[in-house]
Specification:
mainly alpha, 9 helices, globular, 243 residues
Length: 243
């Protein structure tokens, strides 16, 4: 065993704070897909060094929220058809497993929490809440399903794609012009009902996967309409879904 001491840990609190603030701004819609992120402007706005901004942006690049490179501006990711195919197909598989596992393991308190989140969506919808707020509740619902599943590695896999899912959903909803609002409460209420009912794992797994796949098809169709590229599998049409 090597007794040589480890190097002292380097505190990077400012970089974490930068990443949190910029992530929140992206997911609130203040920096839309394709928007440039300039180090000097962010450093001035946040009152930190450009080095802290650079480190914070590196974290967001690792999360898949921004793109950067030599001699290229740093920008918020705008979903391509390939991005959508990869992220949503991974998410569909994860959500299916999370839902089926949660159905077996969820406590009454966790199920009550899901119902409260759906009620919160309905209340926010009635109050004409903005899309970022509705999406935050949508994502919180799925976070709770993963929590109820009680599988740490499954949750880690979800966290690896969560920021991209949120960003792509934000892009989809902004293009869908209201279709998300028409479906978000009913689809999540049905998922919560099946989780509470128990019994038919196959039906629940199918619904959880279709919940995501409909959102994938919708975003591919919307990107095609907006000139965002080929859909990749010829099934861009279909229900709008909410995911």
């Amino acid at each position: 065993m090597n007794d040589e001491p480890l190097r002292k840990a380097v505190r990077r609190g400012l970089a974490d704070e930068v990443a949190d603030r910029v992530r929140d701004a992206i997911l609130d819609g203040r920096f839309p897909p394709g928007a440039p992120l300039r180090e000097v402007d962010l450093a001035e706005s946040l009152g930190v060094s450009r080095g802290a901004v650079r480190e914070g942006l590196a974290r967001l690049e690792h999360e898949g929220l921004i793109r950067t490179g030599w001699h290229r501006p740093t920008t918020v990711v705008a979903a391509s058809a390939v991005d959508v195919e990869e992220v949503y197909r991974v998410r569909a598989a994860l959500d299916r497993l999370a839902a089926v596992t949660a159905m077996r393991r969820a406590t009454p308190e966790q199920l009550d929490g899901l119902d409260r989140l759906v009620d919160g969506m309905a209340a926010e919808l009635a109050a004409d809440a903005g899309v970022p707020r509705l999406l935050a509740l949508d994502m919180a619902f799925h976070d709770r399903v993963y929590e109820a599943a009680g599988n740490g590695r499954l949750t880690a896999a979800w966290q690896a794609v969560r920021s991209q899912v949120f960003l792509f959903q934000l892009q989809r909803v902004s293009l869908a012009r209201g279709r998300y609002r028409a479906l978000v409460v009913d689809e999540h209420r049905e998922l919560a009902r099946l989780l509470r009912a128990g019994g038919d794992a196959e039906e629940l797994g199918r619904l959880a996967a279709e919940h995501v796949d409909a959102a994938r098809r919708s975003l591919l169709a919307l990107l095609a309409e907006a000139g965002g590229g080929e859909t990749g599998d010829g099934e861009a049409g279909g229900a709008a879904g909410d995911g």
